[in-house]
Design the sequence.
């Protein structure tokens, strides 16, 4: 089951419908002389960026060169031009159709490197469906569900996948170590003066693809967790900042009420899903609701971190800007993550945090509906 793909498709859907009145389509046509930061529903880059570029949104298109690093998060991304330095992305679907001057780190649902793609550095990819048809000059490290390699890899390769396919155009010029759910695979004539080794121990690493365990296994995964958390918080904040700001008003007086509504959400939604799945007519709705519910649990601590940050801002009357809130929320997310991995106590903390968070957001939605009815 391609869990990661499903979750990121759900993420894309939510982003598409989550636009607030403050968001707009952004088109960058002029040369940017310095580092550039943008967040919006749709972002299209048609001008050169001479520094780093950080973008977040539902649909991202880069048509001109980036002279520094490129960091992106969102629903769907198309890279059609040169990136001089590192490229880090967390998206639902990514299509890379150009050259990247250094490392590429990808976390997504579906990742496609076309025949025109050239990665001058290392490629690290954690995704559901992965297609590599271009050239990787550095090391290759992949963890995914369906993996297709039909390009060139110059340095060592580490490939972990449920279903690995080696295309006829693939060429490996250095050692390959891999794990495939069906066991050993035939690399045919794709190995150039090197060998491929099946490693049974890598099968245990496939669990690290789960977002519920990400960030608890090693220092390297913690680094990746922090980067991924930052990108997700960036997107959530950009798209739903008004909802977070409104939800914290009166939260202190409605803390128990928020907890109760949230507890109903955590317990009631699974019951409704089971009922829907038992009814043939309700199966599509039940499956969709299951995906959304799982998504809300997996990213609950990041959403809670944003809500807590806005609560502190509201309570202390702080004049924090967009980036202040984003980075404070990231720090809170790390703290919450550390607390919730404590055995037994961590589960209790998670239930309380998620209940209050989703309860507050639910009350905000109910209040907004009542206001519309009165008007």
Sequence:
């Amino acid at each position: 089951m391609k869990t990661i793909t499903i979750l990121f498709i759900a993420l894309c859907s939510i982003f598409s419908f989550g636009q607030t009145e403050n968001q707009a389509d952004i088109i960058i046509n002029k040369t940017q002389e310095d580092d550039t930061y943008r967040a919006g529903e749709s972002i299209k880059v048609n001008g050169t960026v001479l520094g780093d570029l950080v973008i977040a949104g539902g649909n991202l298109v880069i048509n001109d060169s980036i002279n520094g690093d490129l960091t992106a998060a969102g629903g769907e991304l198309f890279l059609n031009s040169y990136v001089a330095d590192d490229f880090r992305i967390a998206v639902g679907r990514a299509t890379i159709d150009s050259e990247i001057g250094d490392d590429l780190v990808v976390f997504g649902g579906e990742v496609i490197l076309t025949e025109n793609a050239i990665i001058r550095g290392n490629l690290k990819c954690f995704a559901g469906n992965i297609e590599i048809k271009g050239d990787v000059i550095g090391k290759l490290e992949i963890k995914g569900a369906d993996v297709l390699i039909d390009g060139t890899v110059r340095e060592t390769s580490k490939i972990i996948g449920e279903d690995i396919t080696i295309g006829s155009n693939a060429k490996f010029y250095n050692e390959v170590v891999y794990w495939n759910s069906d066991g050993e695979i035939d690399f045919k004539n794709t190995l150039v003066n090197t060998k491929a080794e099946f490693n049974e121990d890598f099968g245990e690493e496939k669990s690290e693809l789960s977002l519920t365990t990400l960030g608890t296994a090693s220092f390297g995964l913690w680094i990746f967790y922090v980067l991924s958390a930052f990108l997700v918080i960036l997107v959530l904040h950009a798209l739903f900042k008004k909802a977070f700001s409104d939800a914290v008003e009166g939260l202190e007086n409605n803390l128990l009420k928020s907890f109760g509504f949230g507890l109903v959400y955590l317990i009631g939604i699974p019951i409704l899903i089971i009922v829907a799945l038992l009814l043939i007519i309700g199966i599509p709705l039940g499956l969709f609701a299951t995906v959304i519910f799982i998504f809300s649990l997996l990213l609950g601590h990041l959403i809670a971190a944003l809500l807590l940050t806005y609560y502190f801002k509201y309570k202390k009357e702080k004049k924090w800007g967009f980036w202040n809130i984003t980075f404070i929320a990231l720090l809170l997310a790390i703290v919450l993550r550390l607390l919730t991995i404590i055995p037994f106590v961590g589960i209790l903390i998670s239930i309380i945090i998620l209940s209050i968070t989703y309860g507050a957001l639910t009350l905000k939605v109910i209040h907004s509906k009542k206001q519309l009815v009165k008007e």
DSSP finds seven helices and 16 strands in the chain. The longest helix spans residues 345-374.
